[in-house]
Amino acid sequence: MKQGLLNVSALVSALILAVQAYGFIGRFGPQFQRTVTGGSKTDYQELSITLEEGRAKAWLQVWSPAPKGTAGRRIKWLGGIWPPRAPDVRRAIWEFDAHPLAVTAGSRAFIVACPIWCLAVPFLIAPSIWIRNRRRKQKIGFPL
């Protein structure tokens, strides 16, 4: 039972790592859109969670008042691999963001971003243990 659980967690971790690796050459992720009515004003909010340019990024933008035709809630998929893009080295290795952004009048935005490797590190644990266990089972050397 214990070995089966390790096998499954190593497989799931490897799949998540493969998806994260895609964020180095392409861009993908969900975008959540909703209109919020509160009192006399109506706000339109977009939250994009993407892997792109070698980093994971969450971008929240709010428009007040809401633009025409934005009522309700929607989920949209952002993505594309064509044309492939090389990752931005500084963003993929050491650049962390968590701050408001300067945008047009009537809207405000906030970004939280980190290199993809920061998200990948926990998913390396199960495959590492799985590989170590496989190597221990093999006999090293020759019988005496």
Give a quick rundown of the structure.
This protein has 144 residues and is α+β, with helices and mostly antiparallel strands.
Give your account of this protein's structure:
The protein has 144 residues and is of the alpha+beta class. Helices cover 31% and strands 38% of the residues. Helix 1 crosses helix 4.
Helix proportion range? 25-40%
Shape: elongated
**What does the radius of gyration come to?**
21 Å
Query: Spans with pLDDT under 50 lasting ≥5 residues?
Result: none
The largest beta-sheet arranges its strands as 4-1-2-3-6-5
* Total number of beta strands: 6
The main β sheet shows up as: 6 strands, antiparallel
| Helix-strand pattern | HEEEEHEEHH
Q: Per DSSP, what share of the residues sits in E-state strands of 2 or more residues?
A: 35-45%
Count of individual helical segments: 4
Q: What is the first-to-last residue Cα distance?
A: 34 Å
Structural class: alpha+beta
The protein's oligomeric status is single chain
The whole-number mean of residue pLDDT values reads 84
